[in-house]
Amino acid sequence: MSNSGTSGRRKFIKTTAGGTVAFTLGLTGLNSLLSSFAEPGQDDIHVKFNTGFDQQPLPYAYDALENVIDAKTMEIHYSKHAAAYAKNLKEAAIAEKVDINQPVEKIFAKVDGYSAKIRNNAGGHYNHEMFWKCMRPKTENNKPVGSLKDAIEKELGGFDKFKGLFSDAAKNRFGSGWAWLYLDAGKQLKIGSTPNQDNPLMNISEIKGFPLLGIDVWEHAYYLKYQNKRADYIENWWNVVNWDYVQQRYENKG
Ligand SMILES: [Fe+2]
Question: Cα of 42 to ligand 1 centre, how many Å?
Fold first, then answer.
C-alpha cells in the first residue's frame, strides 16, 4: 500500500476470504513515526496516520455484499463517487500547494485552515477508504469480537443497546452524512454523526476522536436498492460489518 510516501515500504495484501485486508509495514519504529506526526492531543485518541491521497483497491468484488448492498450501487459508489473524492482532493491539493505526500489525517487536525474543496474531498476520500474496509461478505450472527466486544458491553450497555443507538444516529442524520463509533480523547467509546463528509478527526467537528466504524448514509450509498428506506439499509448493513477490522482499529492497528 504505497499511499503514505512517508512511511517506507508497504506491502498491500488482499485476501478474498472474509474480505479482510492486512498490511505489512516496512517500518522501523512505527510508534516514533506516528508520534512525530502527532498534533497536540491526537496521540491520546489513537490517530493513525496512514491514509494517502490515492484511492486503494476495493477489498472485495462489487457483488460481494450483494444481499445487503447490490453490485451496481457498489460499482457506482466506489468507481464514481469515492473515486471523484480522491481525484478532486488531489487536484485541489496541487492547486493550493498542499503536500500530497503527507497522510490525509494531518489535514483533518487543522482542517479549518484549508479550503472547502480540500475539507469536503479529504473527508470524502478518507471516510470511504475506511468504509470499504469496515465491510465484508455477509456473516451469520455478526457481532463484535475480542476487547471491543468487552468494551461495548462495559461502556455502551451491550451490543443490542449500542446497535440501537448507532442505528438511531444513522437514521436521524438529516440529509447526507455519516454515523460513527469512535474513541474520544479519554479513549471511551462514543456514538455520533457528522454532516456531509466531515468526520470525528476534523478539528471543526462537533464530535471528536478516532473513528472505529462508520456508515455512509448519503443516498448514493443505498438508493438504488432501498430507495427512501434508509432504515432498512442500516438494519441490513449490520450483517456485513467487518468486526475483525473494527477490532484492529480499536487495538490501534487500523
Ligand atoms: Fe458514499
Answer: 26
